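Running this now, will post back.
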Amino acid sequence: MDSEEVIELEKKFIMQTYTRQPIVLSHGKGATVWDIDGNSYIDCFAGVAVNSIGHAHPKVALAICHQAQRLIHSSNIYYTREQAELAKLLTGISPHDRVFFANSGAEANEGAIKLARKFTGKSEIIAAENSFHGRTLATVTATGQKKYSEPFRPLPEGFKHVPYGDLGAMADAIGDDTAAIILEPVQGEGGVIVPPEGYLRDVGELARQNDVLLILDEVQTGFGRTGAMFASELFDVRPDITTVAKAMGGGYPIGAVLADERVASAFKPGDHGSTFGGNPLGCAAAIATIEVLLDEKLPERAARMGSYFMARLRQVLQGCDSVRDIRGVGLMIGIELDGDCSRVVDEARKMGVLINCTAGNVIRLVPPLVIKKEEIDAAVDVLGQVIAEVQ
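Update: finished.
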C-alpha cells in the first residue's frame, strides 16, 4: 500500500477532525522519522512534544515488549506491581505525594478539576486566556480559546478566564466560590508564551493567601521539556496539583494527576476512576521512559540544546523582517512571524524538517530531547531558507 492509498482510506473511513500533513510515516529513530516512500525528516515536533526520548528508544521498546508478554490490562480492581512502582517513581521526581493514573492530558485535567472541587467544596476554576487544557467538554471550557469551545455549547458552568501574566487580574478574579487556578507554566498551543518573571511564583502565593488551590498543567512542559524535570522547578512555584501526560510514556498513552497528600485525601473510593488508567503496559513504558530521562540526564540536555537552538535561530534569522520574536525555554521554542506560518510548515516538510504552526503565526519547535547539534543546524538552515522565501 503506497501513501496515496493510505491517504484515500483515511479520507473515506476516518472522521475528518484533523488537518494532516500529506505524508505517511513509517518508522523513526532518535530525532529522525521516515515515511513509507523512504523519505527522511528531522522531527522538530515529536508528536506534539510526546517523543521526548526519541523514536524507538530500545529501553522503552524492550519494556513494552516484555510487559505485553506478561500482562497488558487488569483494571484497577486489582493491584499491579508496575503501577505501584511508577507511582513511587513519580512522587520521587515531583513535589507531590499521591498519584491518580489516566490515559491523556485532558483526562488528567478533568481529574484535577474534580479533585479541586471535591477538596474545597467550591466550584469555580480560574484559567488563563489563550490557554489549552484538552478536548473534553470540561477541559475545552477551561481552555481560554473560544475557537475550541464555541461549537459545543452549552458548556459546563464554573469557569472564568483572565489574561495570562496579569497578576492583578488574577487577584481580582478570585472570589468566595473559587476552588482553583489552573495554568500552563508555558502556554504551548497558545503560541509558546513564557510567563513574566516571577508571575507563577506570585500566583502561587496569591492562591495560598486566598485558600485557593493551584493546578499546574504540565502536560506539555513536564518530563524535561523546559530544561527541568518539571517547569515548576524552573519557575520556583509549588503547585498543589500537577497534571502530566504526553512525554510520560515515551509515546505510549498515559497521564496522571499528581497531588499533595492533604488534597489527594479528598478522593474516596468511587469518586473517580478509569478503566485503562495505569494499565501495566502503560506503566512499564512510563517507568522505562523516566529511567531514560534520568540516566541520560535529558532535562539538563534539553536546557543546553535549547539554548543552542535559540542562539542559532537568532543568528540565522536576524534581519528577517517577518520574524517578530524568538522565545522559549529548554526545547520548547516559538518563532513568531508577522503572518500565517502554514506555508512555512509545508515548505519545511518538503525540505525534510517537520515543524508545527500554532496560534496562526507561531512556529512551534518541540523536538525530541535527544536531538543532535548537527540536526539542529540542519533544521535551522532549512527554516532560515524557507522563512526568507515564504515570508
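The chain has a mean pLDDT of 97. More later if anyone needs it.
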